Structure formats: structure tokens, C-alpha cells
Amino acid sequence: MKFVKWTFAAVWLFIGAACQDSEVDPNGPVTLTNSDFRTDTDGWVAEVTDYSTAQESIIEFQSGLKALPAPLDATKKSFMTSGHNRSDDLFMFLKKKVTGLKPNQTYLIDFEIELASQYGTNSVGIGGSPGGSVYLKAGVSATEPKKVKEGDDYRLNIDKGNQMEGSAAVPVLGNIGAGDDVTQYKLIQRTTSEPIMAKTNDAGELWLLVGTDSGFEGLTTLYYNKIKAVAELK
């Protein structure tokens, strides 16, 4: 009887360990991530780019696990990003590595994103609208998205387009406008209009990226509530 109990316990320990692994089932369709940030950042890391070295101390970039803002449910956590767009081109983004996919294979990936925004779609601000001129993007890359220095500027090492223009790897999902005349935080949803095509590297890895490309020359503070990405073999 003791042997049976210990065997049963060992099986459950094995299952528990497998569930905690970051790898996913290599057969599509697969959920690459389904993050709700209730307890932690779930492997997502925040970065900022598209500004000059002279502006580094004045962009006021902040990020981290924070409670949803009022009047939303403050008992629930979210991933906050905040920055002052001194360059008229600030790009704040989250990235996450996904493993366990089939090596050197092409996948089609769809995103569903929910975030809290307080910016009116028809609002007016310096350089552009705080809601209508800040563009939400999502993308996939086999290489890690990183901030790189080019002369006196910091840029992203993969093509994301610029502001309202996206790229094949990082398309625009819409802006962060929460509706006309909105002045307090509310949850908004954005999804990919068509799947993003990406090929895994030799190790069966992909990097996910979600961020905002700003044409508004002011402070933007957003709270990511949910990020889901699903992939299917092409």
C-alpha cells in the first residue's frame, strides 16, 4: 500500500513539474501565452526604445506589476507601462520568450489583448491625440526583440514600422482610444485582423511582443490586463 501511495505521489509531482515548464505542446493549434497577471508578470519583460541618449533621463519610463486603476477593480493586478514621449516616437513594449515549438517551422499567430486606457479616441494633445495617435502593436520574432543603440538613438532591432504603420512581423492592432470623450480608465480589447506569420529558430523558439508606438508628445500610462496568443502550423 505504501508503494502505491508513493507511486501516486511521484506521478503527481511529475505532472506538477511539467505544468510549470514554459514549453508548450509542439502540435498546433497551441496557446503560446494566456497571461492575466493576477499573481506575476508570467515571463513578460518591459522595455522602451525610440528615443535619444539625451532624452534618457526625461522619458520617465516605469513598468511593473500594479493594481488596476480606479474605477476598475483595484484588487486585480495588471502589467503597467508608463512613459513621457519626449521624442515624438516613444515605443514601450512587453516581450516574452516561448519554447517547445517545432524547430524551423512556420506558424500563424493570433493575439487577443485587453488593457486599461483612460484616453479618449477624439482627445487632443501635443503632437497628436493621447488616444487616437498612440498605436497598439503585437508581433512575433525568432530573435529576441532588443533595444539597440544607433549613433545617439535607441532603436528596436526588428522592424516594427513607425507609429500608425506596422510591419509584417509587428502589425498595428488599433489605437488605445477608449471611446469618444473618455476621461477615466476602462478596459478595451484589441485583436489581430489576420494571423502573423513567423518561423521558429533551430531551438523551436519564438519571441512575442506587445507595445505602443506613440505620436502623442505627453505621458501615457497603460495597464495590460490580459494577453493571449495562439499559434497554428502553417
From TrEMBL:
This is Lipoprotein.
